[in-house]
Design brief:
With 263 residues, the chain is α+β, with helices and mostly antiparallel strands. Helix content is 30%, strand content 28%. It has a domain of 169 residues: 2-Layer Sandwich (Alpha-D-Glucose-1,6-Bisphosphate, Chain A, domain 4). Strands 1, 2, 3, 4, 5, 6, 7, 8 and 9 form a nine-stranded antiparallel beta sheet that branches. The longest helix is centred in the last third of the chain and has 20 residues.
């Protein structure tokens, strides 16, 4: 490396160090091209996450929806930060049986991956279908955290979980901005109960929080279709479909378990 190049690199490093750093920089996950799953998660099936890229609303196929779920903790003397600390610490317990969350040992921290093992509802005589996927914790602070979906997840977008105060009352809120990741998921959301199941998951979570704090589960739901168009250029996302991949690999997993028991 010649002397001029060395000096140039030193100048660029000095300039970068001089740039202002956002006060919430530590609350954001570092940029990644592909997800990695660190550590074992007891009881979790780890599929369709490691090596996958992230997908936001622009990368999905179906209609784009914003859905907001709100629960007021009326007459409860608790701050948003206290609620969020409890929420993060009990996240797996708050989920329904058909959508289990498996955070890492680090918990809800920026850059961590939460594995998800879920079951889609039975329809038209077909049995329930398993799906193994996950989300990246994109942002987390004392009063909120946001997650982003990987390729193959039923949705392409974000979910933000937050606690805030309005007119002296602490509110728990879940807000999603997402669209179905591929045509199969879009059909499932529209015609096979997928959309209703999704809404029931977040109602369940807020209902569990209401039970913990001893309040009525007066949950308000607001839904808005932000963009009704289908993005046919993204139809190829079906290649990563986590339901299809989880189902097709099931016989291999069963065979491995059977061989493991008999060896």
């Amino acid at each position: 490396m010649d002397e001029q190049m060395t000096e140039t690199m030193a100048d660029e490093t000095a300039n970068a160090a001089a740039l202002p750093v956002s006060r919430d920089a530590a609350n954001w996950a570092r940029p990644v091209e592909k997800l990695a799953v660190e550590g074992e998660r007891a009881g979790a099936l780890n599929l369709n996450v490691a090596g996958k890229g992230l997908t936001g609303p622009l990368q999905g196929f179906g209609a784009l929806w914003q859905k907001t779920y709100r629960l007021p903790l009326a007459a409860v003397d608790v701050s948003p930060a206290q609620v969020m600390a409890w929420w993060k610490g009990h996240l797996p317990e708050l989920m329904p049986d058909d959508s289990r969350f498996y955070p890492s040992m680090t918990g809800v921290q920026p850059g961590e991956v939460v594995l998800i093992n879920a079951t889609l509802p039975a329809m038209f005589g077909a049995p329930p279908m398993p799906v193994s996927t996950g989300v990246l914790i994109l942002y987390a602070d004392d009063e909120s955290f946001s997650v982003m979906t990987p390729e193959g997840h039923p949705e392409s977008g974000f979910n933000t979980f937050s606690a805030l105060e309005e007119e002296g009352v602490t509110l728990c809120q879940i807000q999603s901005l997402a669209r179905a990741n591929d045509p199969v998921y879009e059909f499932g959301f529209r015609y096979m109960g997928g959309g209703a199941q999704q809404e029931q998951i977040w109602r369940h979570v807020l209902g569990q929080i209401a039970q913990h704090y001893g309040v009525e589960p007066a949950i308000e739901v607001r839904k808005q279709c932000v963009d009704s168009r289908l993005q046919w250029a993204k139809a190829g996302n079906v290649w990563h479909n986590a339901v299809i991949r989880t189902t097709l690999t099931a016989p291999l997993r069963w065979t491995k378990r059977a061989l493991g028991r008999t060896s």
